[in-house]
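REQUEST ID: PR-0412
SUBMITTED BY: lab tech R.K.
PRIORITY: routine
TASK: structure prediction, single protein chain
INPUT:
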Amino acid sequence: MTLGFELKTRDGRARRGSLTTAHGTIETPTFMPVGTAATVKAMTPEDVRATGAEILLCNTYHLMLRPGAERVAKLGGLHRFMNWPGPILTDSGGYQVMSLAELRKLNEEGVTFRSHLDGSKHLLTPERSIRIQHLLDATIAMCFDECTPYPATEEQAAASMRLSMRWAKRSKDAFAPRLGYGLFGIVQGGVHPGLREESAKALIAIGFDGYAIGGLAVGEGTELMLSTLDATEPLLPADRPRYLMGVGKPSDLVAAVARGVDMFDCVLPTRSGRTAQAFTRSGTLNLRNARHADDPGPLDPRCRCPACRSYSRAYLHHLTKANEILGAMLLTRHNLTYYQDLMAQMRAAIETGRFAAFLAGFEKEETKESVEMSQSSQT
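STATUS: complete
OUTPUT:
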């Protein structure tokens, strides 16, 4: 294995560890902000780092189309290109290809699709996906897979998963090992425990630096997602990091850490920041709502971010109503800070053996969460 993972302690099923890479060490459990096109929207790299983020996720599909992996490589790789010296994980493009159902054709070789930008035709195979991620200089690359949609019959999920396992082997064969760089496999199988077990066994036989749990948070709902996690987590090697892809809400992160997950990514905190939504310790707020127009208080008095330290809810309300860019910048910075502080609180709770108490306190706060988002039509 080319990445160093140390599992420092457990508290129940929750895990506290560190992942050592060529671009720095990542303390786990960790949340990766999403920088789809080599940028976290509405944020500078320095501001992202100030939130506490240690690793970013970038998107293979989007970067292969624009500006092109070969161009990024000529310019010194993704870290230099986007001014982020820390670790970068790149997804393989499989999820985006799934979302292009009307623009793609899939077979054993790979996926032929037309660009959503200009209609140009492309072939993405496991070998090409790994090559693109190498050109980008991704610290952690993901094997190429088909993200099984939901709903899918067990037969459909089985066929999709087994194709992904064949692609996983080709991805591993195409990967060029380097010290401090790694390749993660992706467990598929829909919401079917037997298929998840088959997938995990196939990936472990191939051997990866880490194991992702894919094909969740695609419409199955929280209960099915968590029951699938319960069935999958015991199948994964204890000495390798576990990554739940595309998740999620703060409550999802806490529930998944309680089930032994180490790594997460999701667009929710950044997308919400651009649509006037703020995650706070007293609930989720919609800054467009009229109740904030005359409120001189901070967004969250316990938050360390600039939006909370220096600006009132009234001003943030004004910025969002006026569609000012600064509003998106401040709320995105706040949301990412909230997520990173949440991860830091969980790491500390696991280290000190009080994760159960943290979980109980978090769930108590959740029951009191504001219903403001459901009242977003107020003005």
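NOTES: The chain has two domains: 4-265, 272-375.
REVIEWED BY: pending
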